[in-house]
């Protein structure tokens, strides 16, 4: 499978994640405005992939001329919760005084590192899962999408599945559909099907019931920002999933590259939580599904306290808060 995001002929090339699974479509982004729009409407998404987008966005701005630092600010603030976006912008921007070629080289280095580090992090996490879960083969539960599509080319939490599947250790993956944009049903299920991994899609509200019935050996999720104490911001619904996992004695493992750790934040209370457009809930495929005056609470993420997390795993192994 090609990279989720890459650079070709002076443009940023992404897999359009809004088109999947119906259509595999590539988009060429040739302006900073096009990149910011793609980030905001989730054509490119996932914390590690956003780090790559941030770095490549600065490289694109440098090639186009103009006020590169102002463009970098626009990119960095396109989505507020995932720390990787601003991190990627900062990595590339640090090379600006050395010229546009140096900026592009740094951005491409970010892409190469992301593939390598996520593969390493997920390999470490696979060993954590095997140590925590004696049953074989394993029944895993995934929330949102933390696979190839959320990274440059391998995956964080879903990368664990690739490692375990290669060893014949996965019975199936239960895939939370992940409201409101169905990243699990649309993206994770598509990735698992492409890889030949057995899976079943379930509504988010069924996760606790699946654990109660003994259908889950381990919960695997990614992260968009991790505070210094180990609190984890991830797709909305993760917190409730962690509570259910703790109640049922199911290990809850978070997998992310170290660029997702924000050591400047003492705990999760300081993480800014993005709120999405109300129409993501009030409409389905453009058709209203609520009364016209319905008010909406639509946070994109929540924060899971570190006390509910079995392990946070990066490319360095288990994270020590």
Secondary-structure blueprint:
Blueprint: E1 5-8, E2 11-15, E3 26-29, H1 32-40, H2 47-64, H3 68-76, H4 83-93, H5 100-132, E4 138-142, H6 157-166, E5 170-176, H7 183-195, E6 199-202, H8 207-212, E7 218-221, E8 225-227, E9 232-235, H9 238-248, E10 252-255, E11 261-262, H10 279-282, E12 283-284, E13 287-288, E14 301-304, E15 311-314, E16 317-318
Parallel strand pairs: 4-5, 4-7, 5-6, 7-10, 8-11, 10-15
Antiparallel strand pairs: 1-2, 2-3, 8-9, 9-14, 12-13, 15-16
Helix pairs in contact: 2-3, 2-4, 2-5, 3-4, 4-5, 5-6
Structure commentary:
It is a single chain. This protein is α/β, with parallel strands linked by helices and 321 residues long. The protein folds into two domains: 5-114, Up-down Bundle (Four Helix Bundle (Hemerythrin (Met), subunit A)); 119-318, Rossmann fold. The chain has helices at 32-40, 47-64, 68-76, 83-93, 100-132, 157-166, 183-195, 207-212, 238-248, 279-282; strands at residues 5-8, 11-15, 26-29, 138-142, 170-176, 199-202, 218-221, 225-227, 232-235, 252-255, 261-262, 283-284, 287-288, 301-304, 311-314, 317-318. Helix 2 packs antiparallel against helix 5 and helix 4 packs antiparallel against helix 5. The longest helix is centred in the middle third of the chain and has 33 residues, at 100-132. The protein is globular. The model has no long low-confidence stretch (mean pLDDT 97). Belongs to the EIF-2B alpha/beta/delta subunits family. MtnA subfamily.
